[in-house]
Amino acid sequence: MASGQFTREEALLCQGCRHGCHVMLYADTKSRLWGRTPIRHIILMQMRYDGLLGFPGGLVDPKKETLEEGLSRELLEEVGVALPIYEEDHVVANYAPASCSKSLLMAHFYVKKLEEEQIREVERAAASTAADHGQEVLGMVRVPIHTMRTGAGLSYFLSHTFIGNARSQLVHTLLRLNMVTPEELHKALTHSLK
Ligand code: APR
Ligand code: MG
Ligand code: MG
Fold first, then answer.
1. How far does the centroid of ligand 3 lie from the alpha carbon of residue 56, in Å?
2. 1 in a domain, yes or no?
3. φ, ψ for residue 56, nearest 5 deg
4. How does pLDDT run across 58-82, given as a tens digit for each residue?
């Protein structure tokens, strides 16, 4: 893997690290904005207690549970649904600044595709039965991936402030999964820098 990026196994070798696991949950959709602009993908992020945007997930102690068990536990707390997470959903791990402690944080990033109805169920549960709703998690948000001439859409979304590596995790995944073309992303990034 590229320097600064670790596989799941490489990352677990860091004994002195704290480990954090977060996941991008997404689904394909045929729905359209105003019946016109295809939305294409529903991608979930969350507004955190600290006012930053991030992905659902949290701290995991690999001595007590696997990374994936820990991430499923965090999902149950934060979005109210017990979604199974598998090793093959792991995409990459990076060092990240840890707001919660002085020790180094290894940030594991997962991506999991759901059906559209499952995403809606996550949104409903996150806003009702999830234990962390209104406390650690203020609400789920969908990521707009279109960019309009004015910059509305993805470019404005990327102008917000994100926790840790969440912004680059989002941007890389949009490209890697062909959710946006390099040209669309370039347009969005150009607007968001203004
Ligand atoms: N990329 C990199 N680091 C991240 C990301 C991300 N996408 N998302 C969060 N982090 C960092 C946070 O800065 C935090 O230090 O990972 C750590 C754990 O993530 P949280 O989701 O905040 O952890 P969680 O277990 O859900 O919350 C428990 O964490 O922020 C503290 O004190 C706070 O009690 C809270 C505790
Ligand atoms: Mg949590
Ligand atoms: Mg969390």
1. 5
2. no
3. -65, 150
4. 999 999 999 999 999 999 999 999 9
Tens-digit pLDDT profile for residues 130-180: 999 999 999 999 999 998 888 899 999 999 999 999 999 999 999 999 999
CATH assignment of the domain containing 153: 3.90.79.10
End-to-end CA distance of the chain: 33
Query: What residues does the ion ligand 3 have nearby, CB within 5 Å?
Result: 58
Domain count of the fold of the chain: 1
Give the distance (Å) from ligand 1 centre to CA of residue 33. 32
Closest to 48 (Cα-Cα) out of 72, 74, 70: 74
Neighbours of 162 (CB within 10 A): 18
Domain ranges, residue 34? 8-193
Is residue 150 one of the residues assigned to a domain? yes
CA distance to 4, 54, 76, 124, 178, per residue, from 67 (Å): 20, 18, 14, 26, 27
Nearest residue (by CA) to ligand 1, atom 5, is: 164
